[in-house]
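Might I ask for a little of your time on a matter of protein folding? Here, with my thanks, is the record as I have it:
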Amino acid sequence: MCFSNQRVVLHHQDANAASGWDHYLTDLVPNSVVGAFGAIAFTTGKYGLHTLKSLGKLIMISYGTSAFFVIVILGVIAAACGINMLKLLRYLKDELLIVLGMSSSESFLPQLMRKLEHAGAPRQIVGLTVPPGYSFNLDGTCIYLTLAALARIAVTPRVPAR
C-alpha cells in the first residue's frame, strides 16, 4: 500500500515537471522568431544578399525532400495501416507550423502527445512510442544534414592535384 502511494506521488511530481517544461517551451516559441531574424540579418549584413540565395535553395531542397518523404514514403506506410496521411497532416497543422517556424521539433512533442491521445491513441502507447521515436528516428535531421553536407561540398573551392 505504501509503495502504491509513493508511485502516485512520484507520478504527480513528474506531471508537474512536465507541465513546467511545456510552459517554458510555449513561452520560448514566439521569441525564437526574433533570434532567427537576428541570425539572418547578421549573415546578410556581413556576407551580402547573395548568401540568401544559396540559403534559400538549401532550405527549399530540404523542405521539398522532407515533403516527398512524408507524403510518399510515410504516406504509403500509413495507407497500408489504414491511416490517411493528408487528414493526419491537417489534424497536426498547428504543431507543424510551429516546427516550420522554429526549424526544431522539441516544442512539438508535448502538443503532439496531447493530440494523439485526444485522437484516441492510448496514453501508454503514446508515451512509449513518441519520445523514443523522436530520439531514434530523426529522418528530417538526417535529410537536412545530408543536404547541408552536399551544399558545403558544392561551394568548397577545389584545389588542383599536383
The two ends are 79 Å apart (CA to CA).
